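Thread: Newbie trying to understand structure tokens

Hi all, I'm a second-year student working on a class project, and my supervisor (Dr. K.) asked me to get a predicted structure for one chain before our next meeting. I've only ever worked with sequences, so writing a 3D structure as a token string is new to me. If someone could post the tokens and maybe explain what I'm looking at, I'd be very grateful. Here's the chain:
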Amino acid sequence: MPLTSARLYMTPLTQQDWPLFQQLHKTPDVIAQCFDEPTDAELQQKFQSRLQAWHKDANHWLCLVMRQRETGEAIGVTGFGMTEGRAEVGYLLLPAFYGQGFGTESLQALIDWAANTQDVTRFKAVVTEGNFASERVLQKAGFKLVAKEPNAHSIGGKRYADHIYHFDAA
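---
Reply by user tm_fold:
Sure, no problem. This is what the structure looks like when written as tokens:
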């Protein structure tokens, strides 16, 4: 660690990243197609769980802060959690950085690192129905839609399907 790509470097989340983590989970444009705004207690619990040192057999998520290489500015988070030998990936970007390829770039770097250093080659992503931007990111990284789970969860009281994507790096 750190992971690097052409325009990014990614390092494990630290206590100093709380303002970014909070902003990503409280900004309506970020969470609108992902989840309902968490309570302060839920968010603090999620943050604390992601501060733990990560290893391949961990039960918690690896959470990396994405920073622009040129400026050092934090622009989002990315990472994954292991379930049944498959890494479930996730990412959140600040709205100012949407549509610039950072999601795809960070995901490809994460997959390359996981495959080359952690022997993790099976990946999964769950995207809320209608989150076309995240689906495009996954497709660009080689993920394929394998299932749709109708009425999987709700956001703002409305039910949505989950779109399940898989990618095998081997």
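A couple of things are worth pointing out once you decode it. The CA atoms of residues 69 and 144 lie 30 Å apart. The radius of gyration is 15 Å. Feel free to ask follow-ups in this thread.
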